[in-house]
Amino acid sequence: MEPQVTDRADKSRYEILGGDGNTETAGFAEYHLSEGEIAFLHTEIDNRFAGRGLGGLLARGILDDARTRGLRVLPYCPFIRGWIGKHPEYTGLVPEADRARFGL
């Protein structure tokens, strides 16, 4: 079963489930949602799940969801910012006026 990315709005974070049966939280990305913008603050993958590509799957999942929802992305989190830098097809989610500030 593929890892699942889920928006846990009650916790202001996206979670990715991994492990046997995908029932265990393998990582998360914390965010702040405000007036059409989503600011990603911190991303973390549990060391037990390191090296499985879950960070990239989480980044893709959250950014695809932001695109679907029409949200502008503010990548304060260094991991998300770096991931966008390596995947320029997501740069358009960051407001043009903010791209230089995030090095994009």
TrEMBL record:
Organism (species): Streptomyces candidus
SUPFAM superfamilies: Acyl-CoA N-acyltransferases (Nat)
Alphabetical list of PANTHER family matching this protein: BSR4717 PROTEIN (PTHR31435:SF10), PROTEIN NATD1 (PTHR31435)
PROSITE patterns: GNAT_YJDJ (PS51729)
Protein's name in the database: N-acetyltransferase domain-containing protein
Signal sequence region: none
Species lineage: Bacteria, Bacillati, Actinomycetota, Actinomycetes, Kitasatosporales
Ranges of residues in domain N-acetyltransferase: 6-95
Gene3D superfamilies: 3.40.630.30
